[in-house]
Write a structure and sequence with these properties.
Helix content: over 70%
CATH class of the largest domain: Mainly Alpha
Shape: elongated
Radius of gyration: 31 Å
Order of helices and strands: EEHEHHHHHHHHHHHHHHH
CATH architecture of the largest domain: Up-down Bundle
Number of strands: 3
Largest sheet: 3 strands, antiparallel
CATH topology of the largest domain: Receptor-associated Protein
Number of domains: 3
């Protein structure tokens, strides 16, 4: 037998700490779970035979899982969250308990990252930890909103329903990211093609044309001289421009990683003609979608608002929503508090106010999320069209200028031959 020290909370949320005797750490966890204690730490303090033993170190918070496993092809990432939850739901909806489902996944799954994750989760669940607490030990895979939703599902006995809503929510977010990547793929491709065409003219075709015109003699027109000057500058100083641009881009990126840089750049983007409305629509979708899922799964309003705040990616909107959350916790209506932020469209505020007045906040949030999913899709299509059109117009203008400069030079050289 050994003595273990522990800390945690009881069913009412009050802090609990003390010592108990058990044959192993797993038995200690089972005893505490049967007493209704939600354990946050259990460490062996001494062996009862009298031989002192130093307390076992607590597992590192946050990135401890990554430190134990090391970086590599088997280290789970945030991308494994949805795959694990879908596999778990498939088994629990068939009648298996959450613990048995995790055990089966740890045996059956072959994908390296998921197998590593499920094996580590089964180790904790088999020791008596609830699934939500086991997930909480891997924050690099599961975000806080997911963990709290699972915990609420366990507490209310509706884990399957919670998993179904959570999976639907994560799939919607994944679909939005896919749409964003797809929308940007074509403009980026056009930019690369346009850059290749321009570089071909400047570095390959134009120098040969210049040599031909110089050999024929005569004075080149102004447009051709400008084009030749651009070509010379690119040939002699282009690498310096590229290096300077790379240094500037890296410096800007590192500055954006700071809190001040992120806030400043997010504020700039909100003022952009096309990008600003898109970012507002994205914030409305993040807010309504996340808050709806949390409230619909039994999370308290205060906790749901705090978790929703962390899901908003734009720093300007996040800070404004933080102020609104504080006002709501002081007793102000949600629609009134959000109105003060000046970040949300008036129609969204009206729909939210109607939902509060009728006691149907969750359905209102769900309807707002559905409508703004369509708004995001339409804005992405428009954004893609505008960028692609701008790139094509830029390429056509530059190629047209090159053609005009070449034709002008040829005509001027031909005219000089006729005069001679």
């Amino acid at each position: 037998m050994a003595r273990f020290s522990y800390s945690g909370r009881d069913r009412a949320g009050a802090p609990q700490a003390g010592d108990l005797e058990a044959a192993s750490r797993r038995d200690a966890l089972r005893i505490l779970t049967s007493r209704g204690v939600q354990v946050s730490r259990v460490a062996e303090s001494q062996v009862l035979a009298g031989k002192a033993k130093a307390p076992a170190p607590a597992p590192p918070a946050g990135g401890g899982f990554a430190l134990r496993l090391g970086a590599g092809k088997t280290t789970p990432r945030r991308a494994e969250q949805l795959s694990f939850l879908e596999s778990l739901y498939d088994l629990t909806s068939s009648g298996l308990s959450a613990g048995e489902a995790v055990r089966m996944l740890s045996v059956r799954i072959k994908e390296p990252r998921l197998r590593t994750l499920t094996t580590a989760l089964w180790e904790r669940v088999s020791e008596g930890s609830p699934l939500s607490r086991a997930l909480g030990e891997f924050p690099e895979v599961f975000d806080s909103a997911t963990i709290n939703l699972i915990q609420a599902g366990e507490a209310t006995g509706s884990l399957n329903d919670t998993l179904a809503r959570l999976i639907a929510h994560l799939n919607e977010r994944k679909e939005l990211q896919r749409q964003l990547v797809t929308a940007l793929a074509y403009p980026i491709f056009m930019i690369f093609v346009a850059s290749g065409v321009v570089l071909f003219f400047l570095f390959f075709l134009l120098p040969r044309l210049q040599n031909l015109l110089d050999s024929l003699g005569g004075t080149m027109p102004t447009s051709t001289q400008v084009l030749v000057g651009i070509s010379h500058f690119a040939l002699h100083y282009g690498i310096l421009v590229v290096i300077a641009g790379a240094i500037a881009a890296i410096s800007f990126w590192r500055w954006r990683q700071t809190e001040a840089g992120r806030s400043a750049t997010d504020a700039w983007m909100l003022k952009a003609p096309l990008l600003g409305p898109f970012l507002v629509a994205r914030t409305v979708l993040e807010f309504s979608q996340t808050l709806y899922v949390l409230l619909d799964n039994g999370i308290t309003a205060s906790e749901a608002l705090k978790m929703t705040e962390r899901q908003i990616t734009n720093r300007v909107h996040q800070h404004a929503f933080h102020t609104a959350t504080a006002r709501v916790l002081e007793g102000e209506a949600l629609s009134v508090a959000i109105t003060r932020t000046n970040c949300f469209p008036e129609l969204v505020l009206d729909r939210l106010a109607v939902g509060e007045n009728t006691g149907n906040v969750v359905p209102s949030l769900r309807d707002i999320a559905k409508s703004y999913q369509k708004v995001i899709s339409s804005r992405l299509s428009m954004f893609t069209s505008v960028i692609a059109t701008a790139v094509l117009m830029g390429v056509f203008l530059f190629v047209g200028f090159i053609a005009f400069a070449i034709v002008s030079a040829v005509f001027q050289v031909s005219a000089s031959f006729k005069l001679n």
